[in-house]
Amino acid sequence: MALSATSGARLATLALGALVACTGEIGDGVVVPAPVGEQCTSTASPGAPVPMRRLTAVQVERSATAVLGASAPVTVDDETLFAFKSNISSSVDFVGARGYLDFAEATVAGADLSVCTSATAECNAWLFDDVGRRLFRRTLGEEERARYQALFDAGVAENGSLEGARWVLEAMLQSPTFLYLDEVTGTDGYLDGVSMASRLAFTIWGSAPDAELLTKAEAGELASPEQIRAEAERMLADPRSAGGLTDFVDQWLKLSRLNDPDARPDLEALGQDTLAAMRSEPVQLFQMLVNEDGDAAALLTTNMTPAVPELASLYAADVLETVDGRYSLDPARRAGILSLPGVMAALAHAEATSPTLRGFSVLSNVLCSPPPPPPAGISVTLPDIGPDATTRERLQAHFSEPACSSCHQAMDNVGFAFEGIDWLGRSRDQELGKPIDDSATFPLDDGEVTVKGPSGIGAALGDSESAARCVARQWVSYAGGIPDKTEAKCLVEQLSQDVREPGGLRAMILGLVTSDWYRKGPGGTP
In this structure, are strands 53-54 and 319-323 parallel, antiparallel, or unpaired? Predict the structure, then answer.
């Protein structure tokens, strides 16, 4: 059966985009295995062993919005590698390819294509020199441009220049050149300018580079650490930095649980505005501290937070005053990012706190020392010790059992420090008519600490070398798309020292993006 021109163009669109993405055979990207054995002795590095990565769904959506002013949901699942989303090994099957096709069609349907009301030079320049360059994060090659020009011409012949523009844009939005970070290194092992621009943009903005960044990259102005630092400073000052910081903080603290109806079916009753505010406040606090010379200790101890009206009822009397658009919180009840309502609610169950979840999060995400998984076949049901038993009493009975104590004693004894904050993130003084006991004793660094409440655990973690090192490791893992490796060992140590100094959060971000580990592609030389 003969194909119509429209059907043929649809197949051409698929061939240029989604079906290529489906094979995984893209460019000359090679996964270089991480070196093993010898530990690094300086912050010089052969480069991050970063394999080719497919953009996450939200990075695809943000990029389309930035370039075309329109986007649609991407229904393709992301791979999660430890704490962070990083599509380094999952392939795109037929369902995923169809998801990208649906995304491309819906995005283009919502885009303003008025510049292409006729087959003019202006339309071609917009498609290839503006949109194509920004979606592909580099200038199109001659053969590449010729292929898209042929697709455009076929669309024009079918139904005019708007149809040609639609076909080209749908193809570009499904192309592996758009969907994957195919990074190129020079003979010196360092990423070339456009690869560096892309890596920077997706780290700091969580989105594609803008035209200014690409122009600097193509002019050779992203070659030195000083040039990269200056550009990273510009990008951090841009409101778009909320994208990259959201990707980091949101995944680091597992805030997606707030929108998981299986984990927290009760939160929907709070309303979407309140729920969105609970999820965004930790990011806003992190960004505030980055912009105001905050360090790791401030992140874990501050009693200041951006004033978010939707959260006023959850904070209630914890807000002592509102000054310059910020809440000053009762330091006896709130201290640092871990005590925010959204974080506490994410680490709880419906109508019940969870010292276990909260303690596990601190050990895993703030101290990078997760407890081992429970033995196979062990019961995780809390013992019934009476209707008047508090959460703490039930858990203490649970971990008094030998099979449970090795894990639960560590986790729960950390989580008890947050028992003064309930499952919705509200402060409380009692449970079942009994006073809350939020004291906690647990190992930290080379000793053991006893703390009380969020302020106590925040102060202990704020003084901890282990916590500072873990924050640095989490940032390296997020920015590299992989858990930190041997190659980054000395870099992590340096960043963990930097993050403890005034301005340490910003220094950590800038220190990473200007490092050899970040600037070099796989297989470079120190």
Answer: unpaired
